[in-house]
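Pilot study result, target chain (108 residues):
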Amino acid sequence: MRVSSILVLASFLLASAIFASAARADTIQVTVVNETSDDHVCHVYDLFGHGRVEVGGSPFSLASNDARGATFVVNKGGDGNGLIEYQCEGGPILSQIQVTDGQIVEIR
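Predicted structure:
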């Protein structure tokens, strides 16, 4: 491999790492848990920045009283907070939930 090819590859890998780090800096991790006595299939939406976008992994199957829940990533604003909504099929719905990094949101 030529030196110029190695430099191009190294530059690409460095740029990719910087981009990935910047992308993570604009997101927070949130967990949703089911505190009800019923099993739920729950859709979770990120409401910050790009309108209403279903989060990765959603919908989540959440067993009744399952403290493990489902963890996902959402966008955050300059204040470090995100904004989500959950809609359980045939069950509870809650919108405009302000969340912080590492927060656990309980479905009740």
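One observation from the pilot: The domain at 27-107 is CATH 2.60.40 (Immunoglobulin-like). A full batch analysis is planned for the follow-on phase.
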